[in-house]
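Hey, I'm writing a tutorial for new members on how sequence and structure tokens pair up, and I'd like a real worked example in the thread rather than a made-up one. If someone can provide the structure for the chain below, I'll link this post from the tutorial.
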Amino acid sequence: MHRACGASVPHARILSPMASYRLRPNLRCCAIGTRTICLDLSTSRYFLLENVAAAAFEAFTKGTASDEQTGWLLERNLVEAGVPTVAPSLPPNPTESIFDGPTGPSHPLLLLEAVASQWRARRNLEARPLGTLLIPTGLPDTGLDPCRPVAVAFARASRYRDATDQCLVRGLAMRTMLARRGLGVDLVIGVMLPFAAHCWVQAGPVVISDPLDRVQNFKPLLTVR
């Protein structure tokens, strides 16, 4: 993760008195204590704001930033001129996981589709920025039961793939495979400090990609359905 720290905010750009500013749309940020973790969806990279940089960013999000702070953020491409937008909603807090109890067998065809979907998701991640893979499906939340067969197939597929650092691939593939069936779920990316990131999938408050204790210590950074 790249660090973006600032001890001061010198030489900030002079702002137009008539302009309004907003957080760059392809930036997602999460405050943890006095620091802020950001994910740039256009470059698929995380970075950390600390000290004066984090203070300037917090002031901007609260609407109390000085012209100097806003100009500093503008120069670093964290904010841009434009009408402020409503912050994207976050998912409900997860309360349980499909893996809290027996999951049952997986249909062989679903298992093969899960493996193939993850292969395609990995290829897409290698070729395209993350933001282009997180277009909302527009599908409503359909609950747990219709999603269960696909979730079980992905759990079984992990036996045939290296599961290390595969959470984003798995999450993207599962979301796509469910969307093809008209099933809406939330793909969530969470972060923590010392820095770690994890991606999981929820059907309402139920985690369908991981045990509950695997995700509880992460603070949601973004969600997309």
